[in-house]
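Dig into this one:

. . .
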Amino acid sequence: MRREEDSYSEREYRRRRGNLLLKCLIALLILLIIGLSALLVYEFRFRQYQNPWEQKDESAGAGGQSTGEVQVTETAAEEAALPDAEEASLESKANRLALQYDYDEAIALLRSSDGYDRNDRFKQLVSSYETTKAGCSPYPIDQVTHVFFHSLVWDDAKAFDGDEYEAGYNQVMTTASEFDSILNQMYNRGFVMVSLHDMVDVAEDGSVTQKEILLPPGKTPFVLSQDDCSYYHYMDGDGFPSKLIVADDGKVKNAYIEDDGSVSVGDYDVVPIVDTFVEQHPDFSYHGHKGIVALTGYEGVLGYRTDEVYKTRQEDRVTDFQRIFFETHPDFDFDQEVAEATKVADAMKAEGWEFASHTWGHINPRQHTVDDVARDSSRWHDWVEPVVGKTDVLIFAFGADIGDWQPYTYDNPYFAHYKSMGFNIFCNVDASTKAWVQVGPDFLRQGRRNLDGYRMYYSPDLVSDLFDVDIAWDENRPTPVPPM
């Protein structure tokens, strides 16, 4: 009897031990699944794409921030001879092209070099470019999102000082710190800047066809634009830079007037901040393209007073702001101002920026007659185009449009006019959806999303695919943000 009890106890012990082991195995399996799931989420949503030709700057610390300089990795050419100075320069250029997803140009650059047939290192690089390109896939053009900003608030205390302009700044402006956070968050989520002209090809006759944007897995294209980069007179002394300049090193920077009247030079607004960011993160730019700057003309462009009225000083057109400007700038030289603005615009285009019309007078076309719109277009053509060059992009002021959501036709007199002026790409504002794109036989339309105080405060969920508002939010911004 005792022996049977002992046998039963042993069997019960083994049964319980088996159950315990099974439960432990199940628990470990569950933990493993949770861990793998978390890793996949991290990989696909948060981890930065690691380009195989990118060299990290060890001096940047544990984060390993990219310097923008690239070279072949040892695994890509471990048996190839180290390049000489000329080859190293060519290799760096090719790697940067590949970093910015322009694999065909990178391949063509190396293959066209002298002695390519004998250069095993270059051949291995070309092979790696071809392999990476083969893993890319076209992104649906109708799903490309478009975000925009106005001039950035550099000094919060000056912009949010309770004067008559504070409410407007709070609603439609983004602070520089918020912009920095947005850029970093979007980069870490795999977003890549593309041009509107990467989305469609426009023939000489004005016909439009879709193009192909090829990107590696985990990358998402987006268009960036900035409105009203004119540094209007009313913004003087309110914490914004005064203009864009070409610095001594040839880079485009901002001039900022300090309280004592001295001028500081640096990254104070969208253009130079993006330029510096792309220097550090080349893979944030598709084929080297940056954003689109939408300009009015009635107070000049880029901080320069280049409009007709600054030349003619026609009394019935001079505003109070302009009158004060003339009084405080008795030595103003219109031709020199135009030359300096043109120099900045040329430098920006060389860095991958494009320009768009925001209408000369910041008008909503459908609130004006077609004749008035034609007059406005002529002024943009006469006084803005000579500075920034031709463009076929029209970004409507006030987020307006010249039609409803049906495709444009030539029965629409506004569309007929703008097509006659050479415009083929039209952008309104539609923040209710992640992407709104319409491609017609002779136009591209795209809705834009405003990433400003109003959008972040009232509808953070509408931008959650791009960035986390709680992380980006500038605590110096007054709340509540005034309703529109």
